[in-house]
Amino acid sequence: MMGFFEINIMIAFLFDSDDESLSSFYGLDCIRPILQYLEDKDLILESHILRGDLLPHVLCRKINKIKKDEKIFMTELGFDHNFYKLIIAELIDSMSSVWNTLNIDRFLDKIINGVIYTIAFDKLDKEMAEEIDTFLKSKVFYLGALAVDAGNPLHHNLFNMLVDGLYYKNNQLHCLVRLDEDIETVKDVAEIYKENNDINILETNNFDYYALKREELSERGRVSLYRIENKIKTHHYEKIAEHLINNQDVYEEFSFAVDRDQKIQFYCEEKKLREYLLNVDHKEGASKAKFFIELLDIKNEDWEYLADQVNNAMRFAKIKNITFTPHGVKYTARIKIIGRNLKEAILTTAWIIDNSKVPRLVTVIPGEKKDIAEFEDIETINRICEQDLVGNEKFERIYELAHNAGLKAIDKLIPTPMFLNGYSPIFQGMCGFAWIHILSARTPFVKWLKINNIGRKHYNKGWVINVNIEPDNQKYWDWQSIEPKEAYANEFAKVLKLNGIECIADSRLD
């Protein structure tokens, strides 16, 4: 545990709002003894008092559907359960880096199965925080106190949801009255908070709202940020929905659903690629074919390579220009691909999503060299073997491409934490094994694998390559974690299939 703070920082006092001793107005029941204690002790304190339920689930909402017509704009939200598990695990684990008086097992039970009410003072010193905490321990509904780490993005986002409206100074409570509220009503409510003393009523324009300032990342905050950023997976349809929300004034009417369970395969028709985009004799497509040949060394026979480059790059696409037509949703997406010669290029791709829910490529417009800077943080990857390689060189290259794709899939991967009764959250996730099953052992590729002592014979038929990978940093997963093994196996198998080798990725829990 971090040493106790010596300066004024935000301290949150947490309460079990489901406790039977509390009324339906549990917020008032929780704050009243604190204010009475401050009055009785005549403590010198100047602080905002923020209140509200602790709402980690709000951070885990996902867009399911959006709709706009002349009457309404509607957003239907879903829930990311795996991300929620990470948020809870992060919150609990991050407490070890700050001062707190919480029973972690009790806190975990209440944050998952109940509602935790929070009263936070934006600045308390060491002595006062300890005094209030000691006093509150006599209350059965009190869970404990926590020093908020403003340098941790998770703490910042959670505790910034609390509602301001009370200010304590010179042993007097100042209460905000909003413009649409009756002052006498607010006075009545304020008197419930703190009896026998005058309440100073402040109107909105005289109230300086408090917001928890985002400080420089703390050491523990860097861990939280890394895990959270790399756990978030944004579905392609979600990007389209976000674009519509951010530009809703542009569109008079629309309806769009996000099917997050659907694994998107972007359809690049062979005919469109070979007879148009890569056809130097096509009346309209010749200039584009020239671009692909001269800049990227992608020829007509490389159409599958181009299709895979586009498909893979769409994971990082930047959505633009959405239109709704009787035939489906049309939009453009800017992407970065890599050529056969390892040179990179930007493409503006046009797509349509019809009733099949599959994005289908309409056309491609080559970008300019200066546009590369827009995608400098996005790494491109090749997954299809060069056509001029044969024999052992070809098989070695295929294995190299598959292995590199597998490693890319587990780069920065964050498993879903596992929870066991009586234990701290296990960030490495569930344990297990994964492998790639090549369906036929009678292929030249398997012969090459045998010669190089890679894999083993399947108990039924075919050949098996077991996934054995070591983590670079066991802070995020270890050699027993099943999720990175599955991710590696899936990408490895995908590359083999792209190169004409029939296989499946499989796994099991340990």
TrEMBL record:
Residues 266-367 form the DUF6883 domain. This is DUF6883 domain-containing protein. Pfam families: DUF6883 (PF21814).
